[in-house]
């Protein structure tokens, strides 16, 4: 079975300016792995219509699904929704049902700016969520979510039942504290060759002023991942270091 | 004066799997703002040659400079360096001077895997750094750095004197705690219209269970940024909320 694929498009001047540390990618990436959807690309673009529209059309054509974060609030810099309409070549129209939900919740405070959050590409389906009145929306294979992490997470949760599924992408790791990558590289390459169905990665880190390496196996074939990581553990042990098993991903 | 532009390319299965939280983008973004270089795009791609080569060639053509992070270690999954050579259409060759530095530092531990870290696209100039023996490198307008944050930061520091400069990109912010974006959106849009040279952003947040909004002005014209933020403060005050000035960026 081939896993569905995905990309994330972050629409965010605040990420590009360094003002905000993105945390949405890691959240979405981990959830997608559970669902068996392979995250294959992330892009961050500024709040410029041409850049958003171009990226949306490129990424929605290349992957099974595209998740966007950011730019769906009520202010002048929130232009994602209009840009998605332009990318799909459909009108950007008031979604009456959503406007009604807003009027019920906010009464007279529903002004023109807030109604922008009820305006969507024609044919879009709202992504209702527990964290906010204003929804995200899905059109085609594009899922448009907020940038604020707690709202994005609520939207993702609401969206999950609608997403395609694949075989769950599993991860196992083993740590060698005091092991240098360069000393085990050959052996590790040989393990990768023996287990082509496992995506075997090597990630150095420094902890308590000591270098170490995390060897990580990833894929859908758990038996192969565990066999590869057992061999990686033996490689660490052969360096005279006790291998520390990692948490299952 | 037009600011130089930049993109970051993260070569990182570990980011796409959700195993690792990227922190390099924020570091580089903040440093680039200081240097007056406008970060206009970030991409994350997997450790697949065609994906790396394609992204490198697209991004180096589109921006003044491209920074890559990740994939320059000694293991089988470290393929960035070869891919950069392929992107430039030049041979991938041992950099003798770097090999000498390694032999001096590591002696007999310099094996074939470690020599991969001294192998570079022909014509590349090493980026020496305080944190590691193995360097990054620059070729054309592409700066190739490690993925491990402390090594990347040391490489960036070594690289800084070589980078183009522009007018410093300044940031000022004001916070309205208890202010909802939808209530000030019209006024904020009018301020943006009055200060087209300022990039005015609105970012909602929740703190102590209360929604608030950060209004952020960005650009190279400090007087205009400060005037726009003064007007934004007045907008917050008009909501009956005391505006809280943000730290200068």
Structure report:
- Chains A, B: This is Molybdenum cofactor synthesis domain-containing protein.
- Chains A, B: It comes from Acidocella aromatica.
- Chains A, B: Residues 7-166 form the MoaB/Mog domain.
- Chains A, B: InterPro entries: CinA, FLAD1_M, MoaB/Mog-like_dom_sf, MoaB/Mog_dom.
- Two copies of one chain form a homodimer.
- Chain A is of the alpha/beta class and 249 residues long.
- Chain A has two domains: 5-162, MoaB/Mog-like domain (Molybdenum Cofactor Biosythetic Enzyme, Chain A); 170-245, Alpha-Beta Plaits.
- Chain A is 39% helix and 27% strand.
- Chain A has nine helices and twelve strands.
- Chain A has helices at residues 13-16, 24-35, 49-62, 80-88, 96-106, 112-116, 149-159, 181-194, 222-237; strands at 5-11, 38-45, 65-69, 92-94, 119-121, 125-127, 136-139, 142-145, 170-177, 199-207, 210-219, 244-245.
- In chain A, the strands form three sheets. In chain A, strands 2-1-3-8-7-6 form a six-stranded mixed beta sheet, sandwiched between helices.
- In chain A, helix 3 (49-62) packs across helix 4 and helix 8 runs antiparallel to helix 9 (222-237).
- The radius of gyration of chain A is 22 Å and the shape is elongated.
- Chain A starts with a strand and ends with a strand.
- The model of chain A has no long low-confidence stretch (mean pLDDT 95).
- The interface between A and B is large, with 68 and 69 residues.
- Strand 2 (38-45) of chain A pairs antiparallel with strand 2 (38-45) of chain B, so a sheet runs across the interface.
